[in-house]
Predict the 3D structure of the following.
Amino acid sequence: MKLILQTITGIKYAIMVEPTMKVREVKRKIFDTMEIKNKVTLLYGQEPMVDGFTLESLMIPDESTIQMVIEPEKKIKITVQTFKKGQIPLEVHDTDTLNEVYDGLANSGIGPSTMQQEFFFNGTELTDYSMPLYMMGITDGDIIDQKCDGKMKIKLENANNLNRSFRYLPVRGSDTVGKFTRFVSMTLEQNANSIVLFHETEDKNGQKLFDELDIDEETLYMCGIMPNDTIMFINYNSLQKHYSLQIQYTDSEGKEWEKQLIWLDGGHHRRESGRSLMLKIQHQFNIPYHLQRLRFKQNLVEVNANERYSQEQLSNGNLILEKKLVANA
């Protein structure tokens, strides 16, 4: 059937529809075919046509004239419940689409991301990113839920492995750290209680950082983990016997103000990498990897992250660790 749409200025448009189409579907067809982005109100016989009713239920015959009122766009305030940074308030237009909402999140530091983004409103997934917010029933003050549950692969790397070999593991952004740790322990056939995981990142200056994944309830996405990111793991069962470190804390002026004797656990491997050792120090004593200067007491040569060391080299009292403190850090 054909409908004649007439604006308040008298301009007429013809549109082909089906009697079984609901009014909201007619509006969507107007949006798709006539490129009218603004919200429209349809009137038949001076009565507004309700979105949920079909044309036949409203007893609208073929070639009827429908009054079409094109409303000006208006600003609205919505809130996006993000997966990573809590609630983000956004000021948008009711004619904006989810693509523009996503751009607003990007400007807030939430995206863009190579991970799949999903949006929900009132429990229903919003799948059409080109549809205006008003057509999805989103109005001023409403809350949209953002979920990042898409599958991704991350690199799992042994900190004690010097050739940087790794394996890919399939995960989801919604997986918790606790669940991921258990998955890693099963994959490696090792006790989860002896494994510590670190997310390898870089600061703006290219300085390598290792953020420990130590909150079981946090999701991988909340930890900033993205596809193809590297996760390092250390195993505390890595030496046959205990060894100790002498910690020298140094302030920004180079003045030493505290010494402490440290003991680390042992295990079954014969050689330990410098990287693994430094990550253990970060885990146990909260001294960031990039602030450590680990040296042998006898000759003051620095421990190299990319070399392995024997049990004799790491024996009791053979190591000195200086913690470099940055002023106002």
Observations:
- The CA atoms of residues 200 and 210 lie 5 Å apart.
- The two ends are 71 Å apart (CA to CA).
